[in-house]
């Protein structure tokens, strides 16, 4: 490692020869000014947390899936909540697997995810409490307009997957342990198991990236309707399979267990969960539309 | 969070020659080595020409080259993405999300590093060498080669630095490669993915491979240097390290 450092220093000393003496001094002077500016900005930033500490109880950290953030739902929901209750909600949007991991490590106050089995496991292991249904949306299978695998008429989601394999078409998988990935794997189990063929591309990326990738490669993919609708104008992909009951996607909201992680903002988490499942929050979820189409459907059974 | 346990698991995973893990390493090595093989001659010639010859616009080119050193790899990735996209000007080549696209990206990233290092090395070399060679009747090519021979250790250092940058680069590889398992998933993009999945064991295992690779390259470099003599400034820096 030190060698790399000495490489760099030798390059720097050699580069000194490249610029003439006085010019070099001027360049270094300029650099020093820039560095001083950046350093002071960083310093001011570093001081901030001290003043913010008193406001910690007003900050709620929520780990959630990319679908709620990418579709624009949270941008529609949270300001209403923040305004009414004076909280600030900080959102980390990752795959469901990672969101639950963040919650389990106590790095979030609550999680909003969609993978029922994993959610129940999360609560059973003592990481979360008070799991509630919030809403559901549905998944669709999208692909090129020409539909080379002919899945439009396949009938069910599982049958269309089989048909994509039979026709050796490209299928881009999230491959990142997200809720969407787990849904895909569940569909493969219904379709009689996933035997990988060369067209099966495990991307290991978010929904937006995978949709772009499927579009670029003229392949198929499984997506939540929300993310797809929000990106439809940029894609040549079309919805080919929808409405199958196996494609329904329920979201749950879970508070991180304050017994296990005493530092979490349990009160804030509770307030946000109560609001999301309240008639007002549920109405707001239902009224979120893109291109005149509702994307999420309220399903809370809690305090109405 | 425990750091020791995932590290122990990671070492075990590496020792058990997990094929999925080693395939990622193979993608990294293949892409970066091909990129280096392609870019090195071009970059060395550029650096050499900028150091040795006077022509209009030379200073501008040097400033441009040196600012390229700080060019963010994600921006290179973005520009390349737009070029290679199906809707982009080079879309017909169908290169997006292939290893070839990653190689092109790494060529662009490594070019300024290797040429700037070559430029610096040649400028630090004794100018009398080139003059003497020419006076003794050497052709321009022979004279140039003898200068490059004189600064060969600095050149190796240049290539090593280029390798270090491209093999650890994640932004461009992720954007134009797409992190497809078994195809364009290399060590840095895999680490980013595993961390986002919360699978720290795999992340650490790959991190170890990356560090061992860097170490190995530098050890080989130190060995080839042996008792050789580079330019004085380079040697002094070496021995300080």
Can you say what the CATH homologous superfamily of the largest domain in chain A is?
A: Periplasmic binding protein-like II
- Span from first to last CA of chain A? 61 Å
Radius of gyration of chain B: 21 Å
Q: At the third CATH level, what is the topology name of the largest domain in chain A?
A: D-Maltodextrin-Binding Protein, domain 2
The quaternary organization reads as heterodimer
Structural class of chain A, please?
Answer: alpha/beta
Number of discrete helical segments of chain A: 12
Report on this model:
- The complex is a heterodimer of chains A (304) and B (241).
- The termini of chain A are far apart.
- Chain A has twelve helices and twelve strands.
- By secondary structure, chain A is α/β, with parallel strands linked by helices.
- Chain A is globular, with a radius of gyration of 25 Å.
- Chain A has helices at 2-18, 21-52, 66-70, 73-85, 96-104, 116-124, 157-166, 179-190, 207-217, 225-231, 266-277, 279-286; strands at 59-65, 88-94, 110-113, 128-144, 171-173, 200-202, 221-224, 237-241, 248-256, 289-290, 293-294, 297-298.
- Chain A folds into two domains: 76-134 and 253-298, D-Maltodextrin-Binding Protein, domain 2 (3-Layer(aba) Sandwich); 138-247, 3-Layer(aba) Sandwich (D-Maltodextrin-Binding Protein, domain 2), CATH 3.40.190.
- In chain B, 76% of the residues lie in helices and 0% in strands.
- Chain B has helices spanning 4-15, 19-52, 58-68, 73-84, 99-124, 127-135, 140-150, 152-167, 171-177, 187-197, 200-225, 232-240.
- Mean pLDDT of chain B is 87; it is low at 227-241.
- Chain B is globular and about 65 Å long.
- Chain B is mainly α and 241 residues long.
- Chain B has one domain (4-240): MetI-like (MetI-like fold, Orthogonal Bundle).
- Chain B starts with a helix and ends with a helix.
